Predict the structure.
Amino acid sequence: MSTDQVKLNPMDIDELRPCAVCGKGVMHTGSPVFYELNIASCVVDLKNVQRMHGLEQMMGGATALARVFSPSNVVAQRMPADRVLLCSECAGVPHPPLRFVGENGT
């Protein structure tokens, strides 16, 4: 894939941080590839979900119709994202631990 097909988003040196899992530099393995993750938590808006469910039940399960008549279709609120970097070694672990979430976001 050539670079004219991919929109590149440059990273400044000020944005570099140690790997969120091992704490080493993100290029300590010698690999020129590392990973940037933006992890955001979402919180369900229970009032709106209950309201939507009630409307769906009243309308015989017609979800599309309930969406039209609902005052709000918001089902969750996104919390601010945490940005972390992972070295290629830690990113290659089948199930990387999420213990780093929220520790060193921007």
User: Anything to note?
Assistant: The radius of gyration is 21 Å.
